[in-house]
Amino acid sequence: MSRWKGLPGELDPCVRQLVVRLRRVKDHSGLSLRQLAAKTGYSTSSWERYLNGRSLPPREAVEAMARLGGDDPTRLLALHEVATEAWGKRADQADPADLADRADLADRADRQGETTVTEPGTDAPRPHGRALRITLIAGSVALVLAVAAAVLLAVRLTDGEGRAVAAGLSASATTAPGSPEGSERPRYTCRAERIDGRWYAGNSRTMRAVLAEGHAGPEVAEAQCLLREAGLSPGAVDGIFGPHTERAVRDLQKRAHLVADGIIGPHTWKALRE
Q: What is the rounded CA–CA span in Å between residue 17 and residue 81?
């Protein structure tokens, strides 16, 4: 029977009951503190603190002690749970001195060429709570900004685009398809026919191309043909989006109760083809 030191007088009764029980199980196992440390992975100094009431043992250490001493782990774990509440710490928190002991053991094992194994009950370091909150907040703000940008882009690509879009389209008109400088202008014809309930003029089947004044190409010619079919006057069907074509587009948009900005987008294409 081991001769144990007296427990601290200020030790909580629930913790005292756990320590006394652990001492009995240790005595029953017949193991020394050194042997106990070797079999459980917790250092000798750690077990000295656990068994003298100076530190609360982790749940895994209690389970290991019960297994080695042939005691009922359920009873010991129940005592440990009550003691943990009394101690005022979470059961999975490691004692700082315990961590120092384990680090020293791992360092010595490394120098001896042994493989260091993670001890039971130890968790990977967790990020600081405040840093984690800051990271989550920053991620949420970035997500909100990304969604807002996507929504804004979708709105600007619809038929109700403002003059800012028209200006951008006009600036790129010199490189728009079908308008190379110095090349001969293509000739377009209107061969209107209704397919699957929609009108097509034989120049393009687009429903989403965004066109504004200064653009040129078969898509513009298609729109000019369809404007004529709608009884409006876009001027010559030359594939060039000029003032006459813009005026005809505005008239169509007013008739279809769309935003009359003179820019052809998905909604205006739908009105043209219906």
A: 12
Residue 36: how many other CB atoms lie within 10 Å? 23
∠ CA 259-264-270, nearest 5°, is 85
Full-model pTM: 0.36
d(CA 16, CA 9): 10
Helix (H, G, I), strand (E, B) or coil at 55: coil
Identify whether the C-beta of residue 25 lies closer than 8 Å to the C-beta of residue 64: no
3-state secondary structure of 200: strand
Q: What is the pLDDT of residues 62-91, one digit of tens each?
A: 999 888 888 888 988 988 888 898 888 544
For residue 199, the cross-strand partners are: 194
Does residue 238 come out as left (phi exceeding 0), alpha (psi in the -120 to 50 range) or beta? alpha
